[in-house]
Amino acid sequence: MSSTYLIALGSNRRHHLYGRPCEVVRAAMEELAALGTVTARGPIISTAPIGAAQRRFANSAALLESQYDPPALLAALKRMEREFGRRTFRRWGDRVLDLDIVLWSSGAWYSKPLQIPHPHFRERSFVLGPASAIAPGWRDPESGLSVRHFNARLTRPRALPR
Length: 162
Known about the structure:
Elements: E1 3-11, H1 21-31, E2 37-41, E3 45-47, E4 57-66, H2 70-83, E5 98-104, E6 109-110, E7 115-116, H3 125-134, H4 147-155
Antiparallel strand pairs: 1-4, 1-5, 2-4, 3-4, 6-7
Helix pairs in contact: 3-4
């Protein structure tokens, strides 16, 4: 049975073949087709570094229809990261490619190496911005709120403190 996944993609290091991070993300979107059918690609945006990372990120999102179950897809995504040259030296550090399963059409999945929905997607504009362009109505199975709703929470103008 086929499932649909919302995949977040990010890069902030050059690749020896693909070049700049935005081109790495573009190439990774093409490579996702080896795991199923990419039905939508979000815009690639530039975002500030977080954590120990030093360089700006290129981020995007894609919808992937796949026969893989969540653990098998996670293993395939981690293998793809390694093939692109990712090394796991430091948490939150610079990386050639980062691929995360954010949402799954069958709801939630909880195991030691994998949690769906992604535990931090609700507060990450670099995920929600591109995701809202391709899956605005997709609802978080835990809260029932849509991707569009979470993105609006992060991007709405706020009053200045008095």
